[in-house]
Amino acid sequence: MRLIHNITMIALTALTVAACAGKKESAATGTTREELTFPVGERIESAAFTGEAFLRPMIQTDTVFNFPTTNTVTFAPGAHSGWHRHGGMVVLVTDGVGLYQEEGKPAQILRRGDVLQIPAGVRHWHGATKDSWFSQMVVYDASWQPTEDYNDGDNTVSDEYYNNLETVEFAERGEANADGLMFRPGDEMLTLPTFNGAIRLSDLTTESNVCGGPGMHYVVFEPGVINAWHTHAGGQVLICTDGIGYHQIEGQPVEVMHPGDVAMCPPDVKHWHGATPGSRFAHIAANSNPDRPGVEWFELLSKEEYNKLPKE
Questions:
Q1: What pLDDT is stored for residue 27 in this prediction?
Q2: β-strand 167-169 against 107-111: which pairing, if any?
Q3: What share of the chain is helix, strand, coil (3-state, %, to 5)?
Q4: Nearest-CA neighbor of 14 among 102, 104, 97, 115?
Q5: What is the phi/psi pair of residue 161, to 5°?
Q6: pTM for the predicted model, two decimal places
Q7: Are 251 and 260 in contact (CB under 8 A)?
Q8: Fewer beta carbons within 10 angstroms: which end of the chain, N or C?
Q9: Are the CB atoms for 13 and 93 separated by under 8 Å?
Q10: Is it the case that residue 282 has pLDDT exceeding 80?
Q11: Phi, psi angle pair for 164, to nearest 5°
């Protein structure tokens, strides 16, 4: 697999700039490589990037799930991309503080937990600041092809331009995340008959998102909380963001999930998922093939079966 189809297929955001508009954070508040939640991946070797940037492929689009291509992209301090365009992209900031600038607009400061949507064809750049690492997960339409000749010319983001940016905070940021979780969870604990305990649920995107993928939901399980066996008519994609959890497809060994892990359950196949006994667990859940909705629920895993599972 090619690490880079072209700059439009990878692009991402950036890192650590300001505690408030126009002011840079100190090195003491920047995120280090050791503090990143997701694995970093392999170095991107491309003249379209300045400094060290890394790519970790997570999901490749196929004909079973039809889920958009998904990667983690990480920038070392001082690294950034040039100006570029690509297919519609949802950016989910997993760690650090970064920059994103659309052509003709101020550079925006992105922070852990922000969710940004970049429409197809919009010219932009992103990258890390000097004092911090920055990591983001990108879900994007890798099949997009330009329908016009943009004649962009020089796509370089010069050192002078980069070092003299005026910045503003991300306009669509909500309230601060709670309890150190990667994204903001739902405000209420939900008690459902198909779970053995309460969960929190929030929406990161709806189905009408720019990458053309299904809606993405953030589910937080307290320690020991799991859901019942169930099937999805269109299948389901799970991406672990916080803590340690379980996922099991019927007839297969249980998977122990850590942040950055992906679990994919095909259409109409039984599975269950939830937290380990000693760890809160959160994941992004997306019901693939949204044109085939429907969930069928079955029994919960017994306490005896649960207690035999591998411990975190």
A1: 37
A2: parallel
A3: 5, 35, 55
A4: 97
A5: -65, -50
A6: 0.90
A7: no
A8: N
A9: yes
A10: yes
A11: -125, 30
Dihedral angle over CA of 110, 116, 122, 123, nearest 10: 20
Number of Cβ within a 10 Å radius of residue 201: 15
Judge contact between 258 and 182, C-beta under 8 A.
no
Provide the terminal-to-terminal Cα distance of the chain, rounded to the nearest Å.
Answer: 32
Confidence of residue 233 (pLDDT cuts 50, 70, 90): very high
Q: Retrieve residue 160's tokens.
A: 């002078």
Q: For position 29, what pLDDT does the model report?
A: 64
State how far the Cα of 261 lies from the Cα of 179, in Å rounded to an integer: 21
Q: Which two tokens stand for residue 83?
A: 């100006």
The helix (H) or strand (E) run that includes residue 160 is helix 159-163
CATH number assigned to the domain with residue range 7-169, chosen from the 4 options 1.10.8.10, 3.40.640.10, 2.60.120.10, 3.40.50.11210:
2.60.120.10
Arithmetic mean of pLDDT over the chain? 90
Higher-pLDDT residue of 25 and 35 is 35
199-307 placed in CATH 2.60.120.10: yes
Tell me what percent of the residues of the chain surpass a pLDDT of 70: 90
The ranges assigned to domains in the chain are 7-169, 199-307
How much is the pLDDT for 197? Answer: 98
